[in-house]
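Complex record, two chains
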Amino acid sequence: MPFGQTPDTNGEEIIRERNRTIERGQVEGMNPNTQVTEKARKEDPTAHLFAVGHTACAGCGQATAVRLVLRAAGKDVIVTNNTGCLEIFSSNYPYSSWEVPWIHSLFENSAAVASGVEAALRITGRLDKVRVIAQGGDGSTADIGFGALSGMWERGHDILYICYDNEAYMNTGIQRSGLTPHFADTTTTPAGKVCQGKPQGKKDMPALALAHGIPYVATASVAYPHDIDKKVKKALSIRGSKYLQIHCPCPLGWRHDTAIGIQLAKLAVDTGLYPLIEYENGKLTGVKKIARPKPVEEYLKPQRRFAHLFGKGCENIVAEVQQTADQNIQKYGLLSVSPSSAE
Amino acid sequence: MTKHFLEGSQAVAEAVARCKPQVISAYPITPQTHIVAELAQLVSNGTLKAEYVNVESEHSAASVILGASATGVRVYTATTSQGMMLMNEVIYNIAGMRLPCVMTLVNRAVSAPLNIWTDHQDSISVRDAGWLQIYAENNQDAADYMLQAYRIAEDHRVMLPVMVCMDGFVLSHAYETIDVPEQEEVDRFVPPYKPVYKLDPADPLTFGAYAEPDKYTETRYMIHETMRRALSIIPEVSAEFKKVFGRQSGGLIEGYRMDDAETAIVALGSVNGIIRETVDRLREGGTRVGCLKVITYRPFPDGAITEALGHVKNVFVLDRAISLGSGGPLATEIRSAFAGRRGCPQVHSVIGGLGGRDITEDTIREAIDLSLDGKGQARFLDLNKSLELEGID
């Protein structure tokens, strides 16, 4: 059919056909070994809602996290997405990894687009059957899209907002965001003779979410898949605005061996630098306990974004990072009474 | 059809409400606010069953209607001036995603300096975005065009957003007697929205995929081709409107006393009223002058315009906006429409009525005064020379 001649000219028909093709597991050019078999589908019907064949980097924590989120959420969702790595590696026209209805509009408006989706579902009486998930990376969540997110929270839309936190603008090539940790070397906070990476710490997004009085706020880590599963399911069972921030290693931006991403994510939790916390109706109802906190060096050292902290005379900087971890441990009561009571 | 004495904003709100949008989202900004406040009241009273989303910015207002439209419901927003500037990114996005959103743009000047009064700079600044643009002359038009906007946008041969432009204060805050259409008639003219595609778990689609260089051009091509096709659909909808409501409304252009005109004045929007009166006066003095109102600015009705003006010697295009460093946008496009044709009229660009400055009969007489002609350059009307203007001799 020639372009411009039919109402189908926006190309969505091609995407529709492509989605069906993906459903049949027949995407051309894909490694046949990675294609989802009918058998696998039957065994675990929601495990493949984020289909293989996308173009994420090897070791991408975000791709794994998305797969876990959709597996927990099931197919009766509509997902909105800010611009970022995830949107780019999953939706290169005419391919799509999304086996759920999915919309990307702009960098900063996922929360507002989701508000529109939610309003449309509400007025047509479908909000009981279809849940809404809005998502973005850390930059689009904490920085450019924060106004839209704050608006969504303040209005109390029935939406689960998920921030995939890989701690910098990775899609544009590693620039600092509000969620980049203190002292991280990025292309816009490069470590140099007079500057030791990012001068500020992470913006406290969970606290900002809580300040809006929303019923559910939590952090999670891709290193703990069952925890993600539990939190997504719980969040979707609650009416109103929810915020979930998932720590996702980025081998490109953190500059670590692709094989150790999950270990690093685990170390972020075990050092106290990325506390896994859960608030329901404003009250801290769950924390991931740490039996014996690991020293922050163990987390920092394998990442080249922190390499400059291990030169001569930087001991006090590492000590400062350790202090941040210790404060988290204190603030959220992360220490388990005895190792046996740890989750 | 019942007559009501209404403010322009109320007339628009009443017309929009009868089209039954299911999601409305807006942010307050003068002089648009009365429209959405009126709609909020209708929702609050239960007269209009819609989700009314009070957002934190115009960027989000446009994003909310984008999301709702993609979910398959009819939507509405309104804005003006700086609000349009902030929406700009989403405006392009809505068109690119082929979502049939409808908005009222209450025309207002763009800052700096801050100015809340009417001109067309805000809508002209998004003329290239992929929205159809229709300009109202009076409040009956503004109300009627809302109905037509939904018909055109949601036509499966179009599936593009439509912006109805109405002059700030001059129309939005002016009281006139309006024929408010009966609900039954509106239901007949604007049937429930049937989306071609929507976000639905039963048939999961991907919206807003990204396109590499081998595909992006084609998306622009398709929108452009659809726009050109809309040039025949807009008059169709106007003709059907006449059948249902009994009055001429909409279309591409409207000429007045053009048959034997040697001189023509061309403009968008509310100023066409005073232009017609001036034409009558000038005719009384023996000047063979007529005027042409451009109703549809996007798609640009170049064929209809060149046909209407082809026999005229001098065309004076009165733009209430300016492409700074170039000239009047409408004038430039009319010149371009005539380019390469033989025996075509001289097209003169005149700039007036910016930032709410009144356009009077004297302004229009000055506009068509050949002795003051800018010789191909845009000429500003009614300059206040007491302000010690830089660049003025």
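Note: The two ends of chain A are 58 Å apart (CA to CA).
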